[in-house]
Amino acid sequence: MKVAVASGKGGTGKTAIATNLAVSNNVALFDCDVEEPNDHLFFDMKLQKVEDVNLKIPIIDERKCTLCGKCSEFCQYNALATLPSHVLFFPELCHGCGGCKLICPEEAIHEGERSIGVIERGENEIVFYRGVLNVGEAMATPIIKALKKKLKAVEHAILDSPPGNACPMIETIKDADYCILVTEPTPFGLHDLKLAVDVVKKMNVPFGVIINKDGIGDKEVENYCKKEGIDIITKVPYSRKIASLYSQGKLFALEMKEWDEKFQELFAAIEEKI
Questions:
Q1: Nearest CA to 271 among 19, 35, 27?
Q2: Domain that includes residue 84, residue range
Q3: Which residue, of 8, 153, 175, 224, has the greatest Cβ tally within 10 A?
């Protein structure tokens, strides 16, 4: 079973839910927030590089190139620009689709590779994988795709998604058996929850909502979920103790037995739903 934990906005407590859910149920944890992964901070483990993640890029043979411009016309990401004297290539914009190679009438393009990040693994309380995007790179999705290939090595996994509703989040929850949407009872939380709900519905991923920091804000998130028939699978109270443990890098499920039991019951309930 693969359970993705996502949120419409940052700061809702998504990582707190993902890490505690994983450790309470002794299942693998995948940190898919490859631009700023931080799940490892809650575990005493040494991370080792598993592999580099490479992206295919065009290499242009200027001896064969006639500067026809078809490659740059084809590239919708503007990674290629045909000048009067040569073809200019912007590697950070290239998505590695290989279309420029296929369309070149002179066969002046062949493919090379460049590293855009790494996959790392650790193990202590749980099996842990994470992707790390190289500084300065713009595309997180190829790293997440490479990271998710490691799901074959585990039976159950929690996928900690990047915040928001853009391509990295979509790539993370795609093919998940279930998605937990973590929100907070505030106007911003409600606004971005609605966007996230639209995404998971269009992707036909079963989902439920966890309201974190329950007790602050208002009841509009609850009212929205009731109106739309969305299952609120649990609520985590606005708690000074939980916040204090989190700030120390401690998992509150390990420090508060009642929450360890609740996360076990939650995981079992999700398994029954699917």
A1: 27
A2: 55-115
A3: 8
Same domain, 189 and 89: no
Half-sphere exposure of 51 (CA within 13 A, CB side): 11
Tens-level pLDDT at each residue, the chain (274 residues): 999 999 988 889 999 999 999 999 999 999 999 999 999 999 989 999 999 999 999 999 999 999 999 999 999 999 999 999 999 999 989 999 999 999 999 999 999 999 999 999 999 889 999 999 999 888 999 999 999 999 999 999 999 999 999 999 999 999 999 999 999 999 999 999 999 999 999 999 999 999 999 999 899 999 999 999 999 999 999 999 999 999 999 999 999 999 999 999 999 999 998 8
pTM: 0.91
Structure tokens at 143: 């790293």
Q: What is the three-state SS of 175-207?
A: CCCEEEEEECCCHHHHHHHHHHHHHHHHCCCCE
Residue 203 lies in a domain: yes
Question: Of the residues 115, 142, 161, which one is the last residue of a structural domain?
Answer: 115
Number of domains in the chain: 2
Residue 136 lies in a domain: yes
